[in-house]
Amino acid sequence: MEGANLEQHGDLYEAIRYYRKAVQLVPDIEFRIEDFQQLHKPRRERLDSESSIVSCQSECDDEDLDDLIYHFNKIRLKEDEVRSTCLPDRPTQMTHISALPVEVLMYIFKWVISDRQDFQTLEHLSMVCQGFYLCARDEDLWRSACLCLWGTQCGTEENYGTWRNMFISRPHLQFNGCYISKTTYFRQGEPSLDSFYRPCQTVEYYRYARFFPDGHLITYTNAEDPQQSVSRLQPNNLTQGILHGHYKLTGNIVTAIWQSLPETDLSNMKYKRRRQNAYRECFDKTFNAEFILKNGHGSKNNQLCWHEYSVTIKNRETGNEATTDFHLTKSAFPPFNFSRVKSYSLDADRPLT
């Protein structure tokens, strides 16, 4: 410390002599001096003229999060700096985003979340800087998310402390991807000519379920790879095999109903074979299912387990109905696991309201 004081007063020769003595006594003095200064650094109270700004750590528990927000609220700006949400890291000739008012930034954040409620992208955005972290923790933002998700059954945040804690703690579906279930079973093939052996075949297929905040549901079943199938789960896709329906979330129970699309008019079919196949499919199928929303693999609300499942078939010509209840086993009805699909967040119809 004596050498540092002499160096500040311009006496470099005497400062070097003290530095040499310090290195002989403590070889790693240059690494310890900073810890010593931090230990003996005097603290002072935060002034009223100082403003606070914020940064992000998306995967931390509530206690660490509270400490992080308190720590960022202690960050001070210099007296000659303009109060803003964030500051440019380096000089630039273009207009920096910090020049925007906070109200405009919050509107941009609502577009980031959008009507798809993509809060994972919001967490990534909050990692940009301390100001964006503060915007991503705005209570009005999370209040709008809770009201959009639970509506009249939302209640208040009194039991959770904050609206964000309510959103994290209460069970809810995820909308920035789809739930996928893979079913695998074995079946016997045709026997050989000499009947010496009988082949065994492996059958694999996937069930998909995509949920939307407005209560819309899309289901799809096929044997193709998920990377080729998830792009078909769009609200405007009315092709055969894509089934549309509705769902309702009550606690952690998801009640869903979806129907098969009506068949094409028979008069437009030219060939007799196609008309015969259409006659065989002249039934309306209604699927009723009940799922239990659970946590799995270290993530929240990322698994749907079958609870009840039935299919009602109605003959269009006679009006007769028949309902079949399925016996649910883990091998035949494995749970759905959530998988994020980045392409679902590339566009948005409207911001979070």
Structure description:
There is one protein chain. With 353 residues, the protein is an alpha+beta fold. It is built from 11 helices and 9 strands. The chain has helices spanning 2-8, 12-25, 29-39, 62-73, 102-113, 119-126, 130-136, 139-150, 163-169, 226-229, 272-280; strands spanning 177-188, 200-211, 216-222, 243-250, 253-259, 283-296, 299-315, 321-325, 336-340. An 8-stranded antiparallel barrel has the order 1-2-3-4-5-6-7-9. α1 packs antiparallel against α2 (12-25), α6 (119-126) packs antiparallel against α7 (130-136) and α8 (139-150) packs across α9 (163-169). The longest helix is centred in the first third of the chain and has 14 residues, at 12-25. The two termini are 58 Å apart. Mean pLDDT is 77; it is low at 39-63, 76-82 and 264-270.
Short description:
With 353 residues, this protein is an alpha+beta fold. It has eleven helices and nine strands. About 11% of the residues have low confidence.
SSE blueprint and pairings:
Blueprint: H1 2-8, H2 12-25, H3 29-39, H4 62-73, H5 102-113, H6 119-126, H7 130-136, H8 139-150, H9 163-169, E1 177-188, E2 200-211, E3 216-222, H10 226-229, E4 243-250, E5 253-259, H11 272-280, E6 283-296, E7 299-315, E8 321-325, E9 336-340
Antiparallel strand pairs: 1-2, 1-9, 2-3, 3-4, 4-5, 5-6, 6-7, 7-8, 7-9
Question: Which features characterize this protein?
Answer:
353 residues, 9 strands, 29% helix, elongated, 11 helices, alpha+beta, single chain, eight-stranded antiparallel beta barrel
